[in-house]
Amino acid sequence: MYILNSQYSIAIKMSNAVLRLLNKANRIGYGAAKTCFHNDITCAKVAVKQYSSALFISGDKAHDTFSVLSPCLDFDNRFDNIEGLQKELKLRGIDIDVVELKKTWDFYKYVDANKWALEHKRGEITNRMRALIKKKDLTPAEEQETAKLKLEAKIVKEDLKFIRDSLWELENSVVIRALRLPNELDHRTPPSSPTVLSSVGIQTQPATVKSHIDIGKDLGLVEYENPTQCYLCNDAALFELGALALAGSILSKDDMIRVAGTDFSRSVVVEGCGLNHEDPAETFILENNEEIERDSPNRLHLVGGASLVSFLAMYAKQLINPTHLPLKCFTTGRQYSPFPESSLPNGLFTICQVSAAQVFMVLKESKCDEYEDHFQNLIKTTSKLYDSLDCHYRTVIRPATELRPWETLRVSFEMWSPFAEQYIEVGHVSTCGDYLSKRLLICYQTATGRDFPAIISGTVLSVPRLLGCLLETSSDKFVIPEKIAKYMPIDYETI
């Protein structure tokens, strides 16, 4: 029979603490987390299978699924102001019980802290046992201590197994739910209706109002069947090339570097944007791909080279030399996005394949004058593009209800559609802060380690939307802006 010393008492106390943790988890932790998580899924727009994360792989799945990266889990800052977070989620139209989520997150941190305490205790026991084993002859007291240490090691090992299992259960609920929180809102973002910043030109109404699809068919410019089957013909096809060339020229003059993005991306990057990577209404998911296992959460998505996801795929898990900042890039090409079944098709305004110009900037931090200066300069550069068209357009700040998960502020460029009798967004630029860089480990070196840069991004030009608005200004003739005509591959004026 052994006499309990202080070390053995600590081991027993830790064992009892683990039991209390498990009981507490069963009462309020796991049950609440699983219930809230289930409710979130059933409220989704499209019925999909139970959500599994490709961005965060919990410990119990690490043997079966390769973890590409481990996102920075700094949710404490988000939970510091619960009332503010609740207000932002309400403005975005997102139903999440953040009070319960915070409680579960705090409990997760508490369990994690106990796990590290047990790990530390196990290390101390191991070191002491190694020191005793090195001795050739042990005194009776040392032999007794060795036996006690073996018993303590057994207790701590069992406790670690219990606490790891509980921690993995929490990871599968609270961490994945917390990763679904959107970015913080900029104080300039209006709550419900757009704020008009400027209006250029005069809004005119044509004598005959017709849909751009009907006009395009009459003039032999557009063959439209549905959002996934649409073709530009004759001058419309040349217009597409000229518009992208004009956008590329203006962006290049602003010291932006043209890059070529990939049309495909993995689920980890899609989820890094804040999207549900398993929802076919969010992105096109490739099925029966020979390079991807059927049950793998990290699938292949068709997004297009001129998309935010494509840029993030280039910079994810990268350590950037700070002397290279700011990075200012752009690309022209395709964007692919599914057509929501709940929406009504609206011609070229809602097609799935879009020719676009996409910009992407990486700066050191968002809360500084440099970040705001680059954002305002990008707005001015994009305004130059639309000024050159000699058409009416306006610049607005989109309300919180219309923002994507990664956006804090979105400035849109809109043109008038006489047939739809509303303004159509033909381009936008958005501030994203460090939301994306923390999720996808986009870092830059500092004197003491690393930090997460801030990102500005946006689709500054959507060619099909621009084409649709221009077609509706004249029902009997397609009037191509002079600037775009100069960049068309065939001399339009001589035709």
What would you say this structure looks like, in words?
It is a single chain. The protein has 495 residues and is of the alpha+beta class. The protein folds into two domains: 122 residues, Up-down Bundle (Methane Monooxygenase Hydroxylase, Chain G, domain 1), CATH 1.20.58; 300 residues, BirA Bifunctional Protein, domain 2. The chain is 42% helix and 19% strand. The chain has an eight-stranded mixed sheet with strand order 1-11-12-13-16-10-9-4. A three-stranded antiparallel sheet has the order 5-7-6. Strands 8-14-15 form a three-stranded mixed sheet. Helix 4 packs antiparallel against helix 5 and helix 7 packs antiparallel against helix 10. The N terminus is likely disordered.
Entry keywords:
single chain; 495 residues; alpha+beta; Methane Monooxygenase Hydroxylase, Chain G, domain 1; BirA Bifunctional Protein, domain 2; 2 domains; eight-stranded mixed beta sheet; three-stranded antiparallel beta sheet; 13 helices; 19% strand; disordered N terminus; ATP binding; serine--tRNA ligase; tRNA-bd_arm; serine-tRNA ligase activity
